[in-house]
C-alpha cells in the first residue's frame, strides 16, 4: 500500500471508532476516496435490501453519474462479487460480459463484498474512467477499506 492508502485507512479506522451510524461511515469513506484517489471516479456502497435479500440497493455514493439503483444478485459485477463472496476486479469492463453499465466512461471496476457473520451485508464498488486502475496494491487497499465497514457493521 502507498502512503496515501495508509493515511486514508488510518483516517477511516479512527472515524469508525466514533461514527454514529454505518451510513455516516460509508458517506465519509465514499467522499474521501473520491476526493483523494484521482482515478476513483465513482465510489459507492450497495446494501442488501432488507425486504428482498436477492437485491442490492445503492447506498452512499459519490461520483459523476447516477448508478443502477437496484441490482439483482445474479446481475453484473456486483452480483458476481455477491454470489461468490470474492472481490471482483475488471481492468477493462468492455471485455467482461458481466459488466452492467452505469456510465459509458467507465473502463475498470472493483467490487468488494462486505460480509457480517458470514452473510453478505453490503459491497464497496469503485469505478474508474481509466483502464487497469486496480492493481494488487489498489485491491488490497480497497479490501482493507471494506474490512473497516464490515467490522463496524459486525459490532452492532
Mean pLDDT: 95
CATH homology-level superfamily: GAF domain
The sequence of SSEs as H and E is HHEEEHEEEH
The main pleated sheet reads as: 6 strands, antiparallel
Terminal-residue CA separation: 29 Å
Q: Strand percentage, roughly?
A: 25-35%
State the strand order across the main sheet. 3-2-1-6-5-4
Which fold name fills CATH's third level, the topology? Beta-Lactamase
Shape: globular
Number of domains: 1
Q: Would you write up a description of this structure?
A:
- Strand 1 (42-49) and strand 2 (52-63) form a beta hairpin.
- This protein has four helices and six strands, in the order H-H-E-E-E-H-E-E-E-H.
- Helix content is 38%, strand content 29%.
- The model has no long low-confidence stretch (mean pLDDT 95).
- The chain is α+β, with helices and mostly antiparallel strands and 156 residues long.
- Strands 3-2-1-6-5-4 form a six-stranded antiparallel beta sheet, with helices on both faces.
- The chain is globular, with a radius of gyration of 14 Å.
- The longest helix has 19 residues, at 136-154.
- It has helices at 3-18, 22-36, 76-84, 136-154; strands at 42-49, 52-63, 70-72, 88-90, 108-116, 119-128.
- It has one domain (3-154): Beta-Lactamase (2-Layer Sandwich), CATH 3.30.450.40.
- 36% of the residues are buried.
